[in-house]
Every structure is written in C-alpha cells, then in structure tokens.
Specification:
With 281 residues, the protein is α/β, with parallel strands linked by helices. Helix content is 41%, strand content 19%. Helix 2 (37-50) runs antiparallel to helix 4 (69-79) and helix 5 crosses helix 6.
Length: 281
C-alpha cells in the first residue's frame, strides 16, 4: 500500500515531509532518507494533535512562522533515533580497560587526570557503562581523577539518562556481580525497574549539546561517539570529525560505531582496532 493510499488522521504530504526533514537536517545535520516518511508521521502526529492543528501543512506553517524554539526541540526529540544498550559493542569497553586508559595514564604522567566524553549519550547506557568500567579499575586508577561527561541533542533522553532508572529487562545480560555492585532493585511501585547507585550517577556530568552547533569542550583524552556520524552527510561528517580531532588531546582515542568509518574522511586519526582510532595530528 502506498503512502498516498493510506488513511491517516491528518493529511501528510511529500511536501510536508520534505520541509520537516529539511528543518531537522538544518538543526541536527542528520540526513533523513525517503523511507522515513511513515516514521516522521508516526512520531510527529502527536505534536499536530497537541497544538490543535488541522493537518501537517499547518504544522509546517507553524514551525516556519513561529519563534517557538521549544517546538523545534519537540521536533528534534521526536525524530532522533535513540537505540542503545549497556556495554553495547563490548570490545570497546574491554579496549578502554586494557589499552586506552593504561596508555593515557602513561602519557599523562604527573597530570593524573583523564577526561572521557560520551557524545550522543542517548538514554545513558553508554556513559554508565563507561563509569562502571572506570569504577571496576579502582585499584589501577588510585590517585587518578577520571571525569566523564555525557551529552545528547534530545532533552528527553538526557533527562532520562540523568535519572538512571531502567526497566529490569534492560540489564538482564549483565553479570550478577556487576548488577549487585552498581544497581538498586525497585520495590513497590518501582518493581520491575532498577536504578543506578548514586555513586555511579555522580561520576557523570550530563548535559544538552547539538553537535552541529558551535560548541567548546575542554580537551578530552577519550571520546565515544558511536552510531551518530552514520546519519550525517559527507560534509557534516567531515566537519564533525575535524572538531573531534581538535577536542582530543594528541594520542587520545575516538571510538565510533560498528557501521562507521573514517576512511577518506580525515587523516588526523589512525585506525588501531575495530572502529577504534587514535589522534595523530
């Protein structure tokens, strides 16, 4: 059945879709393909309802003429994808523990401060996995300060991440020892949920950040930006990777997603492992 033949609560035309994905792209840098037509409708229809509009053309007009930045935030929150899991692509966390952190400790010497940034942190599973990895290296890192920052463009997921509450099935694959050390089991009204322990939550500084807008970051030793640049066009990807290179200390590490590559994007990183790069220039 074609999109034109489907019965919808509100009229949604290709013109509406093109305007909305163009607006989304201008704010996020994310390229939206033609096959996301139905996804855009399903995720934004509640905004049309909430604003009391008669169709998507009215919604487009509202966004075009309104100075309501809050609605732009609602649009971005609705259409950005947030797929994540604890210790997703676990080889990255193993490399962090066994190679990256020890190497940075040797390189930094008396500085004794390491900074890690989860750029595109989604609902928090990645930065909490980073914090658990660091926490489980307590003996090796004694006397060191490890700062972890986590940012995302979506205000809803940043809020969820900062709360650190998850359905119990989200942590089913974690070892029992790790569950007992880092999570509290919900009771009563919170049965079926877990919460990260305060000591883990306190290791992370969460915040909102649009990677395609001007931003300044203190130099980082390690950046995780996984399954983010895959959504950008070639030029936006190049610009972002160059900014990451500027934000990473020489010899620092960049971890990207399993379907991503910096091949022909930049010569400022060298590939040293499976989707693991070291800054060389």
């Amino acid at each position: 059945m074609t999109t034109a033949a489907r019965t919808r609560e509100f009229e949604f035309t290709r013109k509406d879709f093109d305007f909305l994905r163009g607006l989304s792209n201008s704010h996020t840098g994310i390229v939206v393909s033609d096959d996301k037509f139905d996804m855009f409708y399903s995720r934004l229809v509640r905004r049309v309802r909430a604003l009391g509009l008669r169709d998507f053309a009215s919604y487009c007009k509202y966004l075009k003429n309104s100075e309501d930045e809050g609605e732009i935030t609602e649009l971005v929150n609705a259409v950005t994808t947030n797929l994540t899991a604890f210790f997703r692509e676990n080889h990255h966390f193993e490399y962090l523990r066994d190679e990256a952190l020890p190497e940075r400790m040797r390189a930094l010497g008396s500085d004794r401060r390491i900074s890690i940034w989860s750029a595109g942190c989604s609902t928090g599973e990645e930065p909490y996995s980073l914090a658990m990895t660091v926490g489980e290296m307590e003996a090796q890192l004694r006397g060191w300060q490890v700062d972890i920052s986590a940012t995302d463009i979506d205000s809803n997921v940043v809020s969820q991440a900062s709360r650190g509450v998850y359905r119990a099935d989200r942590v089913e694959g974690l070892p029992r020892a790790r569950l007992q050390r880092w999570f509290l089991k919900g009771k009563g009204a919170q049965q079926g949920y877990v919460r990260v322990k305060p000591e883990l939550r306190q290791r992370i500084d969460f915040g909102l950040l649009n990677l395609m807008k001007p931003w300044r970051q203190e130099p980082k030793d390690i950046i995780f930006c996984r399954n983010v640049i895959i959504y950008f066009d070639k030029e936006s990807k190049r610009q972002l990777v160059e900014r990451f290179a500027d934000a990473i200390k020489p010899g620092g590490f960049l971890f990207i997603g399993h379907s991503e590559s910096l091949f022909k994007v930049t010569d400022r990183f060298e590939l040293i492992g499976k989707t693991i790069y070291r800054r060389v220039a």
